[in-house]
Structures
1.
Amino acid sequence: MTTSSDAPQARDTQPIVAGATPEQRDPTAWPPEVLDPIQRVLDHSRQKAGQAVRDTFDHRERVMTALEFVEFWNGSRLKAMATQGTNGPHVAPVHAEFVSGRLRSTIYENAVRRRDLRRNPSVALTTWGANGAAAIVYGIAREVPESSRETRPGATGRSRRTVALEIEVTRIYCMKPRPVE
């Protein structure tokens, strides 16, 4: 399993959360009271899931603890984030990670998904890995005040800006990879 400390070097040059220390990004360094709320969401999500979700994600040998989930999530470079627009859903690849127990992401200031979030802050994110490892996270996204910052230029060469999002996690479905035989 890849951990945040194994992440590619490029990730460290443009962190999702400006100023976050390696310890804040590493769930093995977090005290139990930081992981406990994530574990409660995992447990509650499994208990309330419908039959199809349980059949997919509730294989005993593939259930993740909060620590395993955050290590998997933070070790995955890209996630897909969906928002709900007035004419339907919008989905795009994003960087999102847990920092000190809170899910953070960024979004371009001029992105259609930013406009979506102003009308409806509900989001869904997903990522996956080798041998069937997967995670789906649902939550409520809120912009972090005063978080606008310049980021690398786009394909046109024009400068771009992002704003930070903090996502209140409401549901998590995840599973470890299938055992390799």
Note: The domain at 32-175 is CATH 2.30.110.10 (Pnp Oxidase; Chain A).
2.
Amino acid sequence: MAQGARSLPELVSELPQLFIALLRAEFNQLKTELIAKAKVAGIGIGLLLGAAIIGLLLIPVLITAAILAFCLIVPPWAAALIVAGILLIIIIVLVLLGIRFLKRIGSAAPKKTITSIKSDVDAVKGVGDYDY
């Protein structure tokens, strides 16, 4: 045997420790990568939230501008009613569209996943149709 060479039993006995060390290293790398991505995602979400808040503050300004624009044509009370009617129509359309989309979901249970898991369980039990 060459100098420094180890026997097969010695190498095989080291496999569990090497495998565990590899798993720990991979897990640490995964953790580091996910933490870095989470930080970037957090900053992005914070910026989007800030933009959304400013956007929400913009809505009353635009409604006021619409009322003032209609005031050039009709009395102020009528202008406010016209803008309120337009907003009410927008709300009704959005509610009806939202209800239509929610009805498409049907049951909240993930049917494909449940079916897949049941077939996996049947395969483990040796029951049902499955490929060898």
Note: Residues 11-124 form one domain.
3.
Amino acid sequence: MASKTRSSGNKKQTAKAPQRAKVKAAKAKAAKPAKVAKVAKVAKVAKVAKVAKVAKVAKVARPMFEKVAFTMFSVTDPMRARAFYENVLGLTRGLASPDGTWTEYDLPGGGCLALFRHPDPAFARGPGGASVALEVADLDALNQRLQATGVVYQGGMIHGPRCRMSNILDSEGNALILHQLANK
């Protein structure tokens, strides 16, 4: 009988072994998401720290851009364009190449309007790809003068909450906005 007890005792131990292995596996499986969550949290903290470090460096570094250097219009006939800007709009020519490839007009309140005729027609951009707004003192008087010279207008006067604007085309087809603040 002693051998039976032993064998039955061994059977009990043997029967409990798979159950203990299942419990151990279940505990390990339950611990795995917690471990994954901890690793994810550590990774997130590291990422936040890295982003904060980059942001701190960005605040210290000088901005990449300081101001608009100039606004440039493409022109196909630089002499005709110069006549428009000088004779019709009354701007004074600044730096300019003799053949008209490059012409600058420094504006009274700052800024520069440049006209460019690409020397290689294969790379030349067509007119009309941009527009520039010019601040004016008396929009009504300027519109009267420009209409008398035959300047092409695109639509009527635009009334904004703080300004009025007229849209015109230069001799090359580039869009110009004549802008007057409401308090003027």
Note: The chain has a mean pLDDT of 77.
